[in-house]
Task: inverse folding
């Protein structure tokens, strides 16, 4: 997956992993508050899966556990 998201003015990367799926026209985009984002998908289901996979990779990270 891609991890180089353009930084928006005033945006501050956080250690939280709050994912969302946004739609623009025929495409769905999964993104996270940490700055991660997935490529645009025509399949909304696939975009949701990308988001869920990213969140699962980082589950437990904030309780002192290691990801992966």
Result:
């Amino acid at each position: 997956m891609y991890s180089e998201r353009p930084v928006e003015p005033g945006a501050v990367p956080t250690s939280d992993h709050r994912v969302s799926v946004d739609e623009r026209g025929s495409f769905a985009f999964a993104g996270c508050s940490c700055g991660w984002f997935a490529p645009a998908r025509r399949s909304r289901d696939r975009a949701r899966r990308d988001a869920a996979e990213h969140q699962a990779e980082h589950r437990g990270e904030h309780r002192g556990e290691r990801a992966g």
In short: The CA atoms of residues 31 and 37 lie 4 Å apart. The first strand starts at residue 19 and ends at 24. The radius of gyration is 12 Å. Strands lie at 19-24, 27-32.
